[in-house]
Amino acid sequence: MRVPSPRPLPTGAVPAPRPERGLIRTWTPPGPLDVRRTLLPLRRGPADPAFRIDADGTVWRASRTPAGAGTLRLRGSAAALEAEAWGPGAQWLLDALPALLGGDDDPSAFTPRHRVVHEAHRRHPGLRLTRTGLVLESLIPSVLEQKVTTVEAYRAWRLLLLQHGEPAPGSAGRMRVMPDARGWARVPSWDWHCAGVDDKRASTVMRAVRLGGRLDALASLPAQEAGTRLQSVTGIGPWTAAETLQRSHGAPDAVTVGDLHLPHHIGYALTGARRSDDATMLDLLAPYAGQRHRATRLILLAAPSPPRHGPRLAPNPPTRHS
C-alpha cells in the first residue's frame, strides 16, 4: 500500500508545537470500561474548549484543580490505559484518575427492572459513573444551563473560557482551563451579556466563586449532604445540584428533576407515553431507588426520545444596547 506524502505547510505556517513530556500513570480498570461514554457527561458541547476527543479515541481534559491548572490525556485500551498530565495540577489529576474513570463506582448494586434498561445494561457493560472531585468545575456550567437551550449554554461556556480562561498546560490545541475565582470575578458585565448569560445566572456564578474552596470541599461529603449545602446558595436548586453531583460525586441516585425534556424521554422509553412530568418520572424510576441516575443514563443511551411536533426554540443572539 502506498503511503501518501505529508501535505506541505503553507508558506509562513509554523507546525503546531508538541507538548513536552508530562507526568505518566498507567492504570488497569478492575472491570469493563468504556472511557468515552464514562467521561462524555463532562463535555459541554462538541466545541468545549476544556474537553476534546481525537479521531483515534484519545481523550483530553483541562481542569482547574485545587493544585492549579492541569491537562490530562488518556489513551490506550481499556485493559491498560496510559494517562499523561501537565501543569501544576498534573499530579492531582493522576491521583484522581481511578475515581474519574469510575473506579469508585459500584455497578453491581444495580438491577435492571425494565426491558429497555436491561438491554442497555447488557449492551454497555463498560459504562461507569465518573467522579471528578471538583464541585465548582461541575457547578458553573450547570448554572449556565439553567432555563436555556443546550445550544445557548454550550455557546456561553465556550465563549467565556476562550475569553477569560487560561491556555491549558501542555496542550497543543486551543484547549482552555476555566478561570479561577478571581478570574470569574473580573468578567465584565458586557462579556456575560455577549455570551448570552442573564444577570440572574451571572450573579449565581459570582456567589458560587466567592465561596470557592468551601464549595469544592463538599466533594469530601456524601452526595446527599453536599446537595443540601449546595442548595443553600441562592440560585442553586434541585436541578443544578443534581447536575453537579452527577459529575463531582459520581452520585448514582442524583436524578435530575425540573428538566424540560427528561421526564418525557423517560416516560416514552418505559411506557410509550408522549408526555410525562417529574412525578411520573420519579414513579417510573422508583424501582431503581439509590441508582436512579444510572438507570437514567442507560435509558438515554438505549431509547429514542419522543417525537417532537412543535417548532424548536431558536436562541436569541445578544444585541448591543446604545
TrEMBL record:
Single GO MF annotation: alkylated DNA binding
A single BP term in Gene Ontology: base-excision repair, AP site formation
Region (Disordered) location: 1-22, 303-322
UniProt keyword annotation of DNA-binding present: no
Keywords: DNA damage, DNA repair
Biased composition (Pro residues): 304-322
Gene Ontology cellular component annotations, sorted alphabetically: cytoplasm; protein-DNA complex
Protein name (Swiss-Prot/TrEMBL): 3-methyladenine DNA glycosylase/8-oxoguanine DNA glycosylase
Source organism (scientific name): Actinacidiphila paucisporea
